[in-house]
Amino acid sequence: MTAPSETPISLTRTRTPNTRPADASLSFGKVFTDHMFVMDYIEGKGWHDPRVVPYGPLTLDPATSVLHYGQAIFDGLKAFRGADGAIRLFRAQRHAERLNKSARALCIPEMDPGLVRRSFEAIVAADHAWVPSSPGTSLYIRPTVIATDVMLGVHPAHSYTYFVICSPVGAYYKEGVKPVRILATDTHVRAVQGGLGEAKTAANYAASLSAQQEAERAGYTQVLWLDGVERKWIDEVGTMNIMMRIGDEVITPPLAGTILDGVTRNSILQLLRDWGHKVSERKVSIDEVMQAGRDGTLREMWGTGTAAVVSPVGELGYKGETIRIGQGQTGALTQKLYDAITAIQYGRAPDPHGWTSVV
Ligand code: COI
């Protein structure tokens, strides 16, 4: 049972609004807007009571199931303020559908995707003054569902809370839009087929932390995950999908159950195909990429993600060897992709695929 897409959303405004920080001070996900969207689920009644309320803490019993067994999903999308002053959501419908896909993987009751989309619009409308306008800034929107049963038995909960919070953001990486260093690991694994790799769930990120910490200590920005069985096929980076240009072929790992079906990944593949590039969604081994790095055919590598946008990769480490990619500089195609997708997001270029919607 699910609240229909046209269910009215109530609005209670905060009495103590905060001031948005200066655009130049924004990093990623450290300040939050004045309001949040909330909706509840109870078995028998379904999803109900969609509302925008003042931003504030959730009160949870210490035995709340999400705190123990991690039955939680989230997604992430952005709103952009264009030079024309309009605020555009990027691919809101696809994000709403992906949230439901993650819900199915975690036994969480699905929501009406139209209502999920309206939850994004309602929170952005309430906090429109928080959408920054400088180049490279946006409002990051974080929809999340948590299991709220108070119980210690391990089984899907009977009650849930859906909430949406927003954060004005700049670049995700401290490098900004400069190339990052990534480290492939075959000592830790994160996802296997049949597991949760393709769901956006807290567990995937918990599973990434110790390898991420080791990579950071070794001077890298992120981990490049390999498949969990043979430990040789490239999967994705902790916070973004990965793509590379070897010779004239752009390669990205296929959606085979262990990686996120990235919305930016999908958009970038579409742009590349629109431009007539040879694009392969195929298995690619770390050995093939390292060899291409050694013989100079690895021309560019970049990550794609809502937070990461299009992030150039300047160095790739694996088993004690580090290869530099494109002299450690941002590649021409990487830059062209970044420029093209951001031009659509900020409304500076036509949107032939209808990806943006004005709030
Ligand atoms: C996103 O790009 O939206 C993500 O969720 C990545 C990360 C910040 C967890």
From TrEMBL:
Chain positions covered by the region annotation Disordered: 1-23
Residues with N6-(pyridoxal phosphate)lysine modification: K200
Bias (Polar residues) ranges: 1-19
Catalytic activity line of the entry: L-isoleucine + 2-oxoglutarate = (S)-3-methyl-2-oxopentanoate + L-glutamate; L-leucine + 2-oxoglutarate = 4-methyl-2-oxopentanoate + L-glutamate; L-valine + 2-oxoglutarate = 3-methyl-2-oxobutanoate + L-glutamate
GO molecular function, one term: branched-chain-amino-acid transaminase activity
Record EC number: 2.6.1.42
Cofactor: pyridoxal 5'-phosphate
Pfam families: Aminotran_4
Keyword check for Ligase: no
Keywords in alphabetical order: Amino-acid biosynthesis, Aminotransferase, Branched-chain amino acid biosynthesis, Pyridoxal phosphate, Transferase
Top class in the EC scheme: transferase
S-adenosyl-L-methionine recorded as keyword: no
Functional pathway: Amino-acid biosynthesis; L-isoleucine biosynthesis; L-isoleucine from 2-oxobutanoate: step 4/4; Amino-acid biosynthesis; L-valine biosynthesis; L-valine from pyruvate: step 4/4; Amino-acid biosynthesis; L-leucine biosynthesis; L-leucine from 3-methyl-2-oxobutanoate: step 4/4
Family as reported in the entry's similarity comment: Belongs to the class-IV pyridoxal-phosphate-dependent aminotransferase family.
Record function comment: Acts on leucine, isoleucine and valine.
Protein name (database record): Probable branched-chain-amino-acid aminotransferase
Organism: Teichococcus coralli
